[in-house]
Amino acid sequence: MVAPAETILEIRDLRTHFELEDGVVRAVDGVDLDIRRGEVVAVVGESGCGKSVMARSALRLVDRPGRIVGGEVRVRTDTGWADVLTADGRTVRSIRGARVAMVFQEPMTSMSPMHTLGDQIAEAILLHEPVTKAEARARTVELLGRVGIPAPERRAGEYPFQMSGGMLQRAMIAMALSCGPELLIADEPTTALDVTTQAQILDLLRSLQRDTGMALMLITHDLGVAAQLADRVAVMYLGAVVEHGDLADVFRRPRHPYTKALLRSVPRLGARPRERLRPVRGMVPPPYRRPDGCPFHPRCEEFMAGRCDVTVPPPVTGPEAGRAVRCLLYEETRA
Ligand SMILES: Nc1ncnc2c1ncn2[C@@H]1O[C@H](COP(=O)(O)OP(=O)(O)OP(=O)(O)O)[C@@H](O)[C@H]1O
Ligand code: SF4
Ligand SMILES: [Mg+2]
Fold it and tell me: What is the CATH number of domain 7-99+181-267+276-333?
């Protein structure tokens, strides 16, 4: 039997809330997720389901009025496990960038418009590693070349506003890779780009992931993107992972009615021209009003009155290894 790959990130019952004047938004509401060494995990779900807040919470990068109110985020280090949520500031800074790095959904959250690309990347290297300025500079140019930026020496001296969207995304990836992370979290890395550039960035991520052996958490609302890159998939709805497992298993035999609906909403290769796409019916409920019982029940085609609107579905494992679903239809197979 092949030994399962080592887990490097373990998220348990993560909860992040936004306390606003009109009420509390439970943006992340009990996420469980594991990432193993060297694998690609896609996190998918409709807009607003908590993908970005979950990823930022994993690095303790949530700004007010957001607050991480519970859970654990354990990262494997050389000396054992560190819980990002309770560790001291020094430990958290040593994890960010060097073990877990992130490419943010809004490019300018991690880039300063006031400094050249080269200075920003070199700064990130100097912060984490005992190298000279000249060494950091040389590494920067090498990294820019590695992410496919032409004339990297010259580009290192340019400012973010001088670059196209695709080039800027490459530069952000270079910055995230600057300290050789074991896990890269890429939050919608292709959404703002045209189709051709999207394909190039996905190719780049795939080849970097293979060359370096780092794990990749790819956050996307695009199931096609997930299908191209991921080994495993986690489907999020209203702040929780409702189904996860090997990508091929989940896409071939989805169990959760939400996963089924999402998959039906994607155009299939070879579909007949008249075949109509069916979007997931209904709307994501307003963030302050979380439905009782199963959070998906107001939209679910398999809703069971008296059960789904009352009971919160626990995770049910199987049928394949590493697979789980949160839906009362599967209660009977609970491990
Ligand atoms: N700064 C904030 N203040 C208040 N609410 C917030 C804030 N940031 C996020 N939220 C809320 O948290 C929930 C989750 O947001 P998040 O950005 O994680 O969604 P997402 O899945 O990344 O969506 P998208 O696909 O659009 O990027 C949403 O209901 C959102 O309105
Ligand atoms: S628990 Fe009920 S409402 Fe929720 S997904 Fe399953 S069948 Fe649908
Ligand atoms: Mg997002």
Answer: 3.40.50.300
